[in-house]
Amino acid sequence: MEEFAADVEGDSLLASMGLDGIAVEQEPLERCHILDDSTRPSSDWIPVPTTFPDFPYPTPYSQQISLMRSVYQTLVEARCGLFESPTGTGKSLSLLTASLRWLLDRNSLVPVRLEELNKRLRQIDSQSAGLEPDWVTAYEQTRSVKRMLEPEIERLEAVKSCLSKIADLKASYFKQSSQLLDACGTQKLDKQYSELYGQPDLDCIDLSTDDPMEGLFLSDSSHEEPFSPEETNLDDALSIPKITQIIYCSRTHSQLSQVLDELSKCEKLSAQISVIQLSSRQTLCTNRKVYQLQHPEAINEACLELGRSKSRCPMRNVSAVKRLSDYLLSGASAPQIACSVRDNSYSKLFGKRSSVLFTHRPQSADFIATRIGCPYYATRESLPTAQLVLVPYATVLQQKTRAAFGLTLTDSILIIDEAHNLLEATTACSSVLLQLRDLQRVLIVLRTYQQHYRARLSSLIALRLRQLIQFVQSLQRLLLPSNHNRLTNQKVVTIPLMLCEAGIDNMSLHHLVDCLRQRHFVTKLAGFAKWVSAKSSNDFQSAEDETREKYDGSRPSLPTGMKSLLAGMKRSHGDMMNQPQIRVC
């Protein structure tokens, strides 16, 4: 930040800009779609409190009270706010106290609003019963008002029911814990467990035995299927009432864990608020065959493959995931549950009661993990009912990641803590690092795929595949040592200039992106690469002696390239620094 030390131009303008200058004019978060002021409830406005009894310490500092009042006022007016406070003044605690108190105050108005709207609806019905001869016009006016009132009443009733469910779950933490313990301690094997864990040496993520001929070629239709298999069904999304959520963002998961520690100090608030911390599969997966892959992309791919294959992940049992979801909403921590399952130690979850889990089945770690359920999908299941959602920057900044989790920013409160790190996080989310060997491996896969399915590809997909190969070849030439225009040392260029130097500035990248997005093409390429790699390795092993005599001991390029494609998923920092590379931002 030294280069910005002397940058004072415009500071006077920023200093004189009030909060209204950056305010976002919008309707209240929970909109009442009413025609006029006569039908709008009178309980929309919430007064800003002068004190905050929920603050865990008896006497807050004046700076903390001022910050909490400012945050509360900003939320009441549905505006954007920028707040700064010195280090060590309890910013996170003040933010949590003010925002959660506002949320509880706003939720307390839901029954009041609902009663006022129902009262107004009854008045309209009674007035329409005694209409005089000009009843047609009066009836149309009454019907218009009722059409605006009834959907709002239905929405508020759904929100009220959801809030009641949250209150019941928060009051039944020990009950939920006991139910989960009973489910883990049962001695009766269900059908799904018997099928999945009753078979010896079952490898449910082995893709080498899959038939690559099934569904690996593309059709002419564009966007026939959504790119992400994680997208939630629209009917299910509409059936879930949208409650007001506070999305609290920080840079890392460790910082979010510190936020949870701060929240635990506010006993009155934490006892009433449902909290969910979103994490990746790498953190929450409890399937040993999946999380032992270690690499995040490999874990994601294996998990998604289990969802598409016949051998589904046993942790994704519907009843177990639903039970675990309720347990998370009652106050449990998903990362702690995942850690306990991986370590096969449940004392932190169940205390001394955990000893009953191994009384009759001392080697039942997989069975217990199955009965507990998948923390990752339980987190996603409980997300619509969570009032406070803790997420890292990367989850919020990327639209596809938000869609995968089912996280929506509409009608939600977004709090970005430690916002000075936001610029760096945005750059990291929008950048990609390509090494020369990455391009070489991708080129091997694309050419092999093209040759294998040459007779089955449609004319449009064959064209896009040739363009994609040309695109990768052009980027590869930029980094080859024989290229006189190779980017030596470090050079910063714009993307159009880089494409011009590569000779592909006349190519439509949008068409290539559409091709990659349709029918999970990238996923199929990865599966095809694994299948070809395994098949080539087996063929080479069976004819190793003949191949050594014929080729003077050198292996064919295809198996080597495919093996390096899979082995290259783990790289050392030194290898990355020594390889020619392009960073696209």
How is this structure best described in words?
55% of the residues lie in helices and 4% in strands. It contains 28 helices and 6 strands. Strands 2-3-1-4 form a 4-stranded parallel β-sheet. It has a two-stranded antiparallel sheet with strand order 5-6. Helix 21 packs across helix 27. The longest helix has 39 residues, at 91-129. It is globular, with a radius of gyration of 29 Å. The model is unreliable at 1-42, 189-238, 547-566 and 569-573 (pLDDT under 50).
Topology, please?
Elements: H1 11-16, H2 62-76, H3 91-129, H4 135-170, H5 173-185, H6 191-197, H7 234-239, E1 246-250, H8 253-265, H9 267-270, E2 275-277, H10 281-284, H11 288-291, H12 296-308, H13 318-330, H14 334-343, H15 347-350, H16 365-372, H17 375-382, E3 388-392, H18 393-397, H19 399-405, E4 413-416, H20 422-429, E5 432-435, H21 436-452, H22 459-479, H23 495-502, H24 509-517, H25 521-542, H26 544-550, H27 557-567, H28 573-578, E6 581-584
Parallel strand pairs: 1-3, 1-4, 2-3
Antiparallel strand pairs: 5-6
Helix pairs in contact: 2-3, 3-4, 4-13, 5-13, 5-16, 13-17, 14-17, 21-22, 21-27, 25-27
Tally of individual domains: 3
What shape does the CA trace take? globular
The CATH architecture name of the largest domain reads: 3-Layer(aba) Sandwich
Helix content: 55-70%
Widest β-sheet, arrangement of strands: 2-3-1-4
Q: Main β-sheet, in a few words?
A: 4 strands, parallel
Number of helices: 28
- Detail the poorly predicted runs: 1-42, 189-238, 547-566, 569-573
| CATH topological fold name of the largest domain | Rossmann fold
